[in-house]
Design goal:
Largest sheet: 9 strands, mixed
Shape: globular
Structural class: alpha+beta
Order of helices and strands: HHHHHHHHEEEEEEHHEEEEHEHHHHH
Keywords: Membrane, Mitochondrion, Mitochondrion outer membrane, Nucleotide-binding, Phosphoprotein, Transmembrane, Transmembrane helix
Subcellular location: Mitochondrion outer membrane
Pfam families: Mab-21_C, MID51-like_C
CATH topology of one domain: Beta Polymerase, domain 2
InterPro entries: Mab-21_HhH/H2TH-like, MAB21L/cGLR, MID49/MID51, MID51-like_C
Number of helices: 16
Protein name: Mitochondrial elongation factor 1
Distance between the termini: 15 Å
Mean pLDDT: 80
CATH architecture of one domain: 2-Layer Sandwich
CATH class of one domain: Alpha Beta
Number of strands: 11
């Protein structure tokens, strides 16, 4: 991870570490809490970086001993409490402010360092002159939002691929009961950021209502609220073979993994991709690696090296329930289908923004772009960020354009709290922890980066 304090040098790092360590006992008294989780993490990360940079072994040993002492104290389950901002965060922010000053002043570099280009210096000076509100708007329009041309080109290409695949399946497997394939996901909903590099083709499977029942995850042996199953019913009246999908039964349930394998062989391994590539003036091929139904498309004439990935997603719909066949999410259960909460989340965000002309979707796109462009935050996907905003909308009513900067800072603070707890519960399925896939070290890295950005959020917008 790129260190926030790297530009400050050894003296600046030592100053922050000395302050944090000397005030550890003071922090312990705030609200009767132990050393707050991310605060001790900040000390640990600073010590690690200072230890690697310091030539004095005695200094390194002293800092290591201080950290061992801190490690004896358990971390608090609550991150931001009254008092911590005045004790620790303000002093960490000094280092961040120094970095900001460095960006503006551009101190003379050594002969071993590469001199910045003139335009790079002017951009930094311009960044320092803007307010956070202006920086967020600039970041949104230059980094997060996609150009209409880029979106239209990706959508058109995805729809052309969709037409080819659907026509092929109808001709080769005319008895396969499929609905009309369509484009879905963030590219369609104007929630994709940075670049139009992925699209989703929805492949609806048509089931007979009298022969199949969608079973909620809580009612299955899996007990996972997002792992649903599709049970074959009424076998005494309609034996196996009455439904086309009976051939993909495993243990009395429609197997998502078997359906994916079938489509893999029927489409990915069979369709003449070189011919399709020649007619579309682009290189189309199954994406290498993995068993996912995913295509890789590379533009030939545009000169762009950025590929477009198109995923085929088998889908079952019943009312407002949408189940997808994604073995990578439901493994090792071959019969499990994934309950997609994306339609509910997107619809709720749109509904809220429409009601009060709010900036929730814009905030989400900024957060998504920040996380995608920052290597430390890259594992934070769209789902936890969308749910973060939905939770915050329950307690915060002002989402006007003029409050974008305040909501952005509030999202950072809330996200730190969720990381420190190790849990961000789904807005629609509270039993689901959207941070469960992150390792402890990944949470630590993200928490430290966001902790530093609370007082200086512009470090995420550079």
């Amino acid at each position: 991870m790129h260190s926030l304090f790297q530009r400050r040098g050894e003296d600046g790092i030592a100053m922050v570490i000395d302050f944090l360590l000397s005030n550890a006992r003071l922090v312990l008294g705030v609200g009767g809490a132990a050393i707050l989780g991310i605060a001790t993490l900040a000390v640990k990360r600073l010590i690690e970086r200072a230890g690697r940079a310091a030539d004095d072994e005695k200094m390194e040993q002293k800092m290591a001993e201080s950290w061992e002492e801190l490690n004896l104290v358990s971390a608090s389950p609550t991150l931001i409490k009254k008092g911590i901002e005045g004790v620790v965060m303000n002093h960490v922010s000094k280092a961040a402010k120094q970095q900001k000053a460095d960006l503006c002043q551009q101190p003379q570099m050594s002969s071993l360092e590469v001199q910045p280009k003139p335009e790079s210096k002017s951009k930094r000076l311009q960044l320092c002159a803007l307010s956070l509100q202006e920086r967020l708007q600039q970041f949104y329009h230059t980094r997060a939002a996609l150009s209409p041309y880029e979106v239209q080109r990706a959508q058109a290409l995805a729809l052309d691929i969709c037409t080819e695949i659907q026509g092929f399946l109808h001709s080769r497997h005319p008895d396969m009961p499929l609905g009309d394939m369509s484009l879905g996901g963030s590219l369609l909903d104007d929630l994709q950021v940075v670049s139009a590099d992925h699209a989703c083709l929805l492949v609806p499977l048509q089931l007979e209502a009298s022969l199949w029942r969608l079973v909620p995850g809580e009612e299955t042996l899996l007990t996972h609220p997002l792992h649903w199953m599709v049970r074959r019913v009424n076998l005494e009246y309609f034996p196996k073979g009455r439904s086309y999908w009976d051939r993909y039964l495993v243990g009395g349930y429609l197997s998502s993994e078997t359906v994916v394998n079938m489509l893999n062989k029927a489409v990915m391994d069979t369709l003449n991709w070189p011919t399709i590539s020649s007619t579309m003036d682009c290189l189309v091929r199954p994406a290498p690696g993995g068993a996912e139904l995913r295509l890789e498309i590379r533009y030939v004439s545009s000169g762009s090296d950025q590929p477009l990935f198109i995923s085929m997603l088998p889908l079952l719909r019943e009312g407002d329930v949408a189940l997808t066949a994604q073995p990578e999410l439901t493994s090792p259960w071959v019969n499990a289908w994934h309950l997609s909460l994306y339609p509910w989340e997107t619809q709720r965000l749109t509904q809220l923004d429409t009601t009060d002309n709010g900036c929730r979707r814009q905030t989400l796109k900024i957060l998504k772009a920040v996380c995608r462009l920052n290597p430390t935050l890259r594992l934070l996907e769209a789902a936890p960020l969308a749910n973060l905003i939905l939770h915050l909308s329950d307690s915060e009513s002002d989402w006007s354009d003029t409050s974008l900067d305040r909501r952005f800072q509030q999202c950072l603070a809330e996200l730190i709290g969720y990381l420190e707890q190790g849990a961000l519960h789904s807005y629609f399925k509270p039993a689901v922890n959207l941070l469960s896939s992150l390792s402890e070290d990944q949470v630590d890295q993200m928490g430290f980066m966001l902790y530093c950005a609370v007082s200086e959020p512009e470090i995420l917008l550079i």
